[in-house]
Amino acid sequence: MIIYLHGFDSSSPGNHEKVLQLKFIDDDVRFINYSTLYPRHDMQFLLKEVHKLVSESKDEKPLICGVGLGGYWAERIGFLCGIKQAIFNPNLFPQENMGGKIDRPEEYEDIATKCVENFRLKNKAHCLVFCL
Q1: pTM of the shown model
Q2: What is the DSSP string of 29-92?
Q3: Average pLDDT over residues 53-72
Q4: Domains in the chain, number
Q5: Taking the chain, what is the end-to-end CA distance rounded to the nearest angstrom?
Q6: Three-class SS of residue 102?
Q7: Domain at 65, CATH number
Q8: What percent of the chain clears pLDDT 70, i.e. is strictly above it?
């Protein structure tokens, strides 16, 4: 199973193409749509949805992937749910570059500092980053 998280522009027609491309790797691709506007809510929602998908799946090696802002979430949620991640052109510091696009960019800073200390160091063997 591959879980796909879209980037900031969730209405992009490219999302459908990306899901179709992922189906060449695994027939079971799940798309989770989230708001992108409220980071704390998004994190709780994504944790719940990903945990549910993983626990209901018979796949022993699920993968979560994301593009842009979805890469930010895939990295964190994958770490917290114990699954490997592949992230493409991830927005790793939305608190620094999303001002004016979202209502609460400071929530990303809060999540980054309070979630898990040094999680990127702890997660480095489980996340593959593609910068194109």
Answers
A1: 0.89
A2: EEEE---SS-HHHHHHHHHHHHHHHHHH---SS-EEEEETHHHHHHHHHHHHHT-EEEEES--S
A3: 95
A4: 1
A5: 24
A6: strand
A7: 3.40.50.1820
A8: 95
